[in-house]
Amino acid sequence: MKSANKLAIITGGGSGLGLATAKKFTENNICTIIIGRDQHKLQAAAESLGLLCSYKVCDLGTLEGIPALVDEIVAEHGTPDILINNAGINQKKPFTEVTDADFQQIIQTNLLAVFAISRETVKYMIEAGSGSIVNISSMASQYGLPFVIAYTATKSAIEGMTRAMATELSPLGIRVNCVAPGFIATDMSAKALDNDPNRKTKVLSRTPMGKLGEPLDIAEAIFYLASDASKYTTGVILPVDGGNSIGF
């Protein structure tokens, strides 16, 4: 693993967009550590990706465990060059039925954990004088979506945090950017759309390219923002959505 060009951490790397990104990274000789809650899923993903991929089991919603997690990764592999904040949870529920506990749970995983793991990783990146962080937003931050109030709140906050982080950290050599995926064909989106034909029809009708994206579409964008190809790019929110955010 020490022969790899760079070291990356991907949260939520065991499936979906995170796994597609891990595959893209390892194919480009980036030593990649995937983080998630499901050991079996992570182990299967790491085995499928080969020697450049390893994993750490961690529930990022438990914030107090994050500093030790980052310290452990650094002790074993060195300072990360790249952090991809991909892990997230969603909940589809009418506004008036969302409890305080529901809202807090999504805030904890989608926002507070992103802040905490970024803070701990940045401490080491500052010492190295370089680094690239890519956060993951959503179309929920680009326009109003019903029934996902907590998720929307977290993704809107992620975009604001991306700009604030970029402004503060870029002078220290650490770039911070964000990808805002459109509607991508994953297990998570299937749950949201396949049981709601009207919602799926609306999604496709306002997407100029007329189809769902693929996980690789997002992985390619993340790879660009994480790599030296974007060395003069920071604070950017990049929609990868088939035109959904500008569709009529």
TrEMBL record:
Write down a Pfam family by its short name.
adh_short_C2
Answer whether the UniProt record assigns the keyword Zinc to this protein: no
Coiled-coil annotation reads: none
User: Would the keyword Oxidoreductase be found if you checked this record's keyword annotation?
Assistant: yes
UniProt keyword list: Oxidoreductase
Which NCBIfam families would you find in this protein's record? PRK07231.1
PANTHER family, per the entry: 3-OXOACYL-[ACYL-CARRIER-PROTEIN] REDUCTASE FABG, SHORT-CHAIN DEHYDROGENASES/REDUCTASES FAMILY MEMBER
Protein name from the UniProt record: SDR family NAD(P)-dependent oxidoreductase
Which organism's genome codes for this protein?
A: Mucilaginibacter dorajii
